[in-house]
Amino acid sequence: MSSLKEKLNNGSFVLTGEIGPPKGTDIEKHLEKAELIKDKVVAVNVTDLQSAILRAGSLATCHLLQQRGIEPVYQLTCRDRNRLALQSDLLSAWILGIKNVLCLTGDHTSLGDHPEAKPVFDFDSVHLLKASSILNSGKDLTGHDLDGSPNFFQGAVVSPGADPIEPQIIKMKKKVAAGAKFFQTQAVFDVEQFGEFVNKVNGLQVPIIAGIVILKSAGMASYMNEKVAGINVPDGLIKEMKNTEKSDIKKKAVEIAARLTRQVKPFCQGVHLMTLGWEELIPDIIEQAEIS
Amino acid sequence: MIRSITQLKSEEEIDRLLEGLMRVFIVGCGTCVTLTHTGGEPEVTAMNESLSKKGKLITGQTVVPVACDNLTSDMLGEFGPQMDQSDALLIMTCAFGVQTIARQLKKMVVPALDTLFIGKETGPGEFNEVCIQCGTCIIGETGGICPVTSCHKGLVNGPCGGTDNGKCEIDRRKDCVWTMIYNRLLDLGRLDSMRIIQPPRNHLGEPTPGKMILPEA
User: Fold this and answer.
1) pTM value surpassing 0.90
2) CB of B145 within 8 Å of any CB in chain A?
3) Using CB atoms and an 8 Å cut-off, which of residues 38-57 of chain B contact chain A?
């Protein structure tokens, strides 16, 4: 049984972390990052060629986490695989003991480091969720019986800061209908906007895990505002980072992440901490956010 | 009218394709490539001058009215001998024109253009793709706007997380088609059709290469 599912089902406020596989084969230091937070989070997401940049695979990395007693959330995108490969990888993941899967569309190939690659997108995220649900029921997508079937706890993503928000919500409802059991969100910085979003989707009765991205510098915040869709770092936060001495920047990063966590907590069922290599700060964030 | 939208290949590529071919006959087209300024009279003449400077012998040039129609006997009569004298035909038309000409003449053909998409001139000098001929049209439920063509990911169930302020994350000059569809359906009072879960695309709907034979009447 997925611990993530168990905790969400019994109403605990969950904490999840995230690591990215290496660009290359030197995976040990990435696994060590996960070891650092092992006892602080219920599960660790592993990204799937995030930003369409070539890296080692999410599946193999999830397997290694599993071996170390860390529960993985297998991120799976529709960018690089057609429906045969997606279903096959889901079956493989279950065989390897992976219980949680996060179904994403995937960033477009043209944004990554192999921009001439063929973007697949045979499925969209709704189809992928549906396929996972169907595999769970013991069939494949075209109705053939499976010889042994998975029982994934499958999640999806949503961008609460997108403008307009209604098309996102329409798609979110489709994801629920297709079998999404939890949602992780794009990074939240504007808590008021996040609260309004949650009020609009409350009726769905599906747990929402708010995305918290650690701010490493004022420059990073401005960059995200300009380049990353759906992210809106308020000027106040950027100013706060700007006015912080370099030596205190990690302290400030912890303070902001903890504050955001505290602020979003009344609206959601957990937070997904994206610490971008600063995983060692997670214990401090948790302490300051006063989440046991 | 729907058009074949083309772009001139790089000089290096054309030079490479013409390597060892000294005598060249150049063909342009009076239709789509004239509109896009990639293979009309001025471009064919400019190509003639440029290749001549590089030492090629241009045996002749012509701009046929519609290169994707069969060549007329008049045209073959007038330019036949010049084409015969050439080592290759450099075709400044879309790929349909190149293939139509290749089918009719026992001559080496060299395309000078890349065919980008089938589209429409939506503003002065602006061309947009309108249909990728997927064979499984869903625009009856998307307000007559095609997401399979106009979403970079071809998504059929709504926008991805890369949309913001009505624009697409991969090209801020491009509108997010799902925002357009949403606005249109909202205007028409038909938002319910956006709530339908569209199935994955049937790629048997457009087996490549496409072929259709009309049933006999």
Assistant:
1) yes
2) no
3) none
The CATH number of B2-116 is which of 3.40.50.2300, 3.30.1140.32, 3.20.20.10, 3.90.1150.10? 3.40.50.2300
Find, among A144, A202, A146, A193, the residue nearest to A173 by Cα.
A202
- Return the number of other C-beta atoms located less than 10 Å from residue A54's C-beta: 11
Mean pLDDT over B36-41 rounds to 96
Q: Is residue A188 part of a domain?
A: yes
- Whether A167 contacts chain B with CB within 8 A: yes
Domain for residue A290, yes or no?
A: no
Q: Are A37 and A17 in contact (CB under 8 A)?
A: yes
Contact between A164 and B197 using a beta-carbon 8 Å cutoff: no
- Please list, in sequence order, all residues whose beta carbon lies within 8 angstroms of the beta carbon of residue A273, skipping any fewer than 6 positions away: A15, A16, A17, A18, A41, A212, A214, A257, A261, A282, A285
Report chain A (292 residues): mean pLDDT per 10 consecutive residues.
Answer: 96 96 97 94 97 97 97 98 98 98 96 96 98 98 98 98 95 98 97 96 96 96 91 94 94 97 97 94 94 73
- How many structural domains comprise chain A? 1
- Domain housing A20: 3-281
| Structure ipTM | 0.92
Instruction: Characterize the bridge pairing of strands B23-29 and B88-91.
Output: parallel
Measured between CA atoms, how close is A277 to chain B, in angstroms? 23
The answer to the question of residue A288 being in a domain is no
